[in-house]
Write a structure and sequence with these properties.
The protein is an alpha+beta fold. 17% of the residues lie in helices and 32% in strands. The strands form 6 sheets. It has a 6-stranded mixed beta sheet. Strands 8-21-20-17-18 form a 5-stranded mixed beta sheet, with no helix packed on it. A 4-stranded antiparallel beta sheet has the order 3-2-1-4. The mean pLDDT is 94.
Length: 305
């Protein structure tokens, strides 16, 4: 089976989940009906709720539809699809080279959990001019990350079976306002909601790459460019905690649900060590092996006086 990813496209009848490959789209529900392979005409997140049963049918539809031009929709408009996530769970400080560039020494110890924080679902946006920025933010940074889409929920998941809970992967940017994140005068010293949880502070690709096409998430290339200049170019092999370990540790803290999005940390190349930051009007190009690239633009958010 040739690799493909899933995107939501705009059809006259409404949004539809589609197989995306070779520059065209095959709507799942409509194609399944024509091929006598019925599948519910619902959103991606509703498909994720029954992913173990749904994925084999998606794979059969993709295999039967491959190369049939009559089933393809060309020039379809792609719409964002991850804003319906129940939870956006983020792992912080999870790459050795990133910690080194931030001047932090770290030794992984058995039994020591990774660091997690949450972003509100409204932080999730798609490609395009989608990231609103308060003009008073002076230290707006980028962090490209592999994002995991949970397809099978659970609590206290074992590391050995953790990847069986993954429906697919996408790529995201953990937008960070460093001057709102660090609060040296506060009793808590950090404010993750102000620094990382604002609306639009988690743009993602439009597509989800099914997990079947990424058998080893610890060998993936991530890239991010700002205004055409490459700033991050790393591999997930530099992770401190693997994707499986992150899923297992997160499930000790909370029940994971189908449709949850888990960001797995950023490789080196962020702006903070060089005091280089983003502003309204900047354009990011973000890329993940197997999924392709997408662009996102920052724009000034009107702020009441």
């Amino acid at each position: 089976m040739r690799p493909f990813h899933l995107e939501t496209i705009a059809l006259p009848s409404g949004p539809a989940v589609a197989i995306a490959a070779a520059g065209h789209h095959v709507p799942l529900a409509a194609t399944g009906a024509r091929l006598d392979l019925p599948i519910a005409d619902v959103s991606l997140f509703e498909l994720l709720a029954t992913w173990d049963q749904t994925w084999p049918q998606i794979a059969r539809i993709a295999e039967r539809a491959a190369g049939d031009a009559e089933l393809a929709v060309r020039g379809a408009s792609v719409v964002p699809q991850f804003g319906s996530a129940r939870k956006v769970i983020c792992a912080g400080a999870n790459y050795y080279k990133h910690l080194a560039e931030m001047g932090v020494e770290h030794e992984k110890r058995p039994g020591t959990p990774p660091f997690f924080f949450l972003k509100p679902p409204r932080a999730l946006v798609g490609p395009g001019r989608t990231v609103p920025v308060d003009p008073s933010i002076e230290m707006l940074d980028w962090e490209v990350e592999l994002a995991v889409i949970i397809g099978r929920g659970g609590r206290d998941i074992a590391v050995a079976g953790a990847l069986d809970h993954v429906a697919g992967y996408t790529v995201a940017v953990d937008v960070t306002a460093r001057d709102r994140l660090f609060k040296p005068d506060s009793i808590f010293k950090f404010d993750f909601l102000a620094g990382k949880g604002q609306d639009g502070f988690c743009p993602t690709a439009a597509g989800m790459l099914p997990a079947a096409f990424l058998p080893d998430p610890q060998d993936v290339r991530l890239q991010l460019a700002v205004n055409g200049v490459t700033r991050q170019d790393g591999r997930t092999s530099d992770m401190i905690y693997s994707v499986a370990e992150l899923i297992a540790w997160a499930s000790r803290l909370m029940t994971l649900d189908p449709g949850d999005v888990l960001l797995t940390g950023s490789p080196d190349g962020v702006g903070f060590p060089r005091r280089e930051f983003m502003k309204a009007g900047d354009v990011l190009r973000v890329q993940l092996d197997g999924l392709g690239a997408f662009d996102v633009e920052l724009f000034a958010r009107p702020v009441p006086a």
